[in-house]
Predict the structure.
Amino acid sequence: MNFRTDLTLERAELASEKGKGIKKEFKHNDFSNTTIIDILNEETAEKLGKAVGRYITIEIPELTFLSSDLPKIVETVKESLDLLLPQKNGLVLVAGVGNSDITADALGPFVASKILSTRHLSEELQKSIGFKEMLRPVSAISTGVLGQTGLESSEYIKCIVNEINPCCVITIDALASRSVKRLGTTIQMSDTGIAPGSGINNKRKRIDEEFLGVPVIAIGVPTVVDALTLAESIYGKSDEPEMVVDMIVTPKDIDMLIKNSSSLLATAINLSLQKSLNQDELSALL
Amino acid sequence: MNFRTDLTLERAELASEKGKGIKKEFKHNDFSNTTIIDILNEETAEKLGKAVGRYITIEIPELTFLSSDLPKIVETVKESLDLLLPQKNGLVLVAGVGNSDITADALGPFVASKILSTRHLSEELQKSIGFKEMLRPVSAISTGVLGQTGLESSEYIKCIVNEINPCCVITIDALASRSVKRLGTTIQMSDTGIAPGSGINNKRKRIDEEFLGVPVIAIGVPTVVDALTLAESIYGKSDEPEMVVDMIVTPKDIDMLIKNSSSLLATAINLSLQKSLNQDELSALL
Amino acid sequence: MNFRTDLTLERAELASEKGKGIKKEFKHNDFSNTTIIDILNEETAEKLGKAVGRYITIEIPELTFLSSDLPKIVETVKESLDLLLPQKNGLVLVAGVGNSDITADALGPFVASKILSTRHLSEELQKSIGFKEMLRPVSAISTGVLGQTGLESSEYIKCIVNEINPCCVITIDALASRSVKRLGTTIQMSDTGIAPGSGINNKRKRIDEEFLGVPVIAIGVPTVVDALTLAESIYGKSDEPEMVVDMIVTPKDIDMLIKNSSSLLATAINLSLQKSLNQDELSALL
Amino acid sequence: MNFRTDLTLERAELASEKGKGIKKEFKHNDFSNTTIIDILNEETAEKLGKAVGRYITIEIPELTFLSSDLPKIVETVKESLDLLLPQKNGLVLVAGVGNSDITADALGPFVASKILSTRHLSEELQKSIGFKEMLRPVSAISTGVLGQTGLESSEYIKCIVNEINPCCVITIDALASRSVKRLGTTIQMSDTGIAPGSGINNKRKRIDEEFLGVPVIAIGVPTVVDALTLAESIYGKSDEPEMVVDMIVTPKDIDMLIKNSSSLLATAINLSLQKSLNQDELSALL
């Protein structure tokens, strides 16, 4: 079982896990299917190559054709995020992971740029603007990538966490999937953190509660299939031809996919963090 | 023989053509291999799915690691282009074909934006600036794509050709290849025009001398392999799974590949058109 | 009276024109003031430095703080445009004028990229998609600028007009104003065409019905004050210091202003052209 | 003396300082003038509104017309930077300050993106690549701005400094000048740190050795004049009209100015940090 995927849902499908180690729950509405997988013990975790914790996967239609259902999908994503957010108050650090110079890897930086940062707005200022309920303090950063900064994403986030002491970190990253059908149509969230770059680059240090000292919610959308996995998923073989290792498979309209997915995620995150604002008020502030 | 490729070199390899219908010539230097293929008659043309005419293919190392050899590669590309340019004087229209919103398809628009346009510079003005030899008149446009403009690329170019009457049109387009090894490492030129969009989109009307009434030199660089072709080139099968038809295979660093390839092509085109300028003088003017 | 401005409203204010040569009408609603100026004869036209015709100026609050009123403002702009559009049917060419590489001059290209092009959609295709009323045929292009293309904007548009024969051309251009308060808060439309580049660059050939042979509706938003005009508007002097001639005055957030203004204009234009679509249906198609 | 400027040279000109508190030195070559100002005591520092320390100002011709002199100007900038860099070894953190979404303020982020980060390259790896002399360890980040991140630039840099312990920080920021002639033609460096945002935004906390605990070299290029200062510099008055406070004066080609200036600075910084590399080797690595 060495298909390269960041999606727990795909690993769970492959393993067709039953029994005590895994719990699955399904929710449906007119425009989405939500699967909540709890990996309950280390044995199952090891079998699936995923950490113990909760994984929520939301499957939606192709984003580019949505529009009128979009507010409802945003709400669905927000509700799933509510299930993972550990507390109602306290500073949250949102960290976009990935390379803004590579379109298919730019999901994290794009989302971070659309988060409503509020940590610097004093109570006084908020009152003078007319807010009745105070906003939740939020900071939003992009980590860049090792080759640009000389710092691992995990290390970069730790720098910020150690100084500003958030109660929780939310990371956003582009993921790899086994299936082209999932690209741009699946949103995965978990409370287990991430190993960034498993989609596009090499494995990096995990970004998780163990490393950072605070809970980490990881959100991702598959944007690539690696070329070898695609070939294998079509023809079922397993010999690894060297020439395709640096190739990625993306939709033709990957630029649009990244733009739409990042808007969707950023709005859902903002709404989950700022319970006193609705979608219209939010867009007026951004 | 239904591999999807825009490269004549690949078709010729497949067909292993010998005999009277095709002529091949090879040139080598330290940093490139050049293949000149002449398709001499309609019979061979039909067999290869390519028009009668001259195809020059230059194979170079991966662009991202070049730097010090770059001026020599630029010179090689320029010399091949010199072989195809029908005249030494007269207005030339350079037309970038492709979608600037899709990274892998943006080669044409990027090159066009780096061409030295001179059609509007009067002899008087050039003398007052200090030019001793007059520049060749050049116009450079990007055609956009049908979905954005409502005009076929061929139609768009015809609009401009009919008004400004160039002696020759040079088109630049991103190509599809069968092989991931060719992406960003092969430059193809021909005097036969192109069927734009065969790389990324559906087949469009040909842009050629028959349609435009003036010679058309087509230049392209492979930037994508379609996903199905990749799977077939690895595993040799031919059943067409539906799910991958809108997927493209690109290098991870496709953004950089497009940037570097477009600089290389634009410089070579500018040098071929403006024989009185060297690379330093050119970059001072752009 | 040599204040550099593209706004007829400003010229009319300066001249405080009364009498037979000019007609003014005002409309107000909660979020905008609309002024309709008709310049009725050549004498007045000459006095104001503007052509005979209708000029509609819509004054709105700063765009960045709108959000909830935005759909209403879009509707107001659309209604004014309806007053100028000569016919209900027939192909319309939308032409973005200006330099996409200079933020403050990129309004035209940005709007053009957001226009729904429909000229290429056959009746058959539209029916198969489910449209009951056929869309109005529209093409949208950006002219680039002389230095990039070697063609005047006017000449560029003429190339396209001569081939596709629209019943009307709509141009979009960034304008200069005398007043910093107008930047991003005033929309001017006229049925008289434009002299592009009066805002940022040198005067160019007019783009109007006389030149193109079809009616030309010009739409613009002031994005710059030239530095000298600003100094004069503060201190009332008129000696022209050389050093500021290539300087422009813009809001700090000019990037956001261009983005928001172009969305507003594009939506209003799309709605005026496609009477069978509402704002939601439009955004689903783009 | 309330002209808004970040240039010590301009303040020193205004004050025409003589005497013990200030020391000036001049250097000339064919393509640049360098002024080294040492502010020697607190009294003079207060008078000039600048901290005690060394300020180096390099005046160059307009960047857009350089090309062939560019390598020499890069070398001049590098040599000045050598004068300020406290040590030959040890990790250096390069921090781009400013807002990448506002063209005129994007100098810092642009430079940071072109710095050769090496902190993550192990000695082993460097040897295997073929480096004989080890590269100096460097990290490069962009701080974003308060409104995006919720963190002051100073605070952001402190987060990173506290974790990675550099021996020195180099900041890059866009500056304000009193004079339009200085825009893009003056480079200022100092060993005193900066108060970021004095050019485009409000005053922020200083980024200096006192705050960060390590030496801070600040590098900047003027990209804006504020609109009021321009009006005053032309007409010599001092009443502050409200309407222009959020306006900036920039060259028309500000996008190009930022691009060219950031390339120049990044190359000079890279060369000063990596003494074993020449310009060609550098560009091959980036």
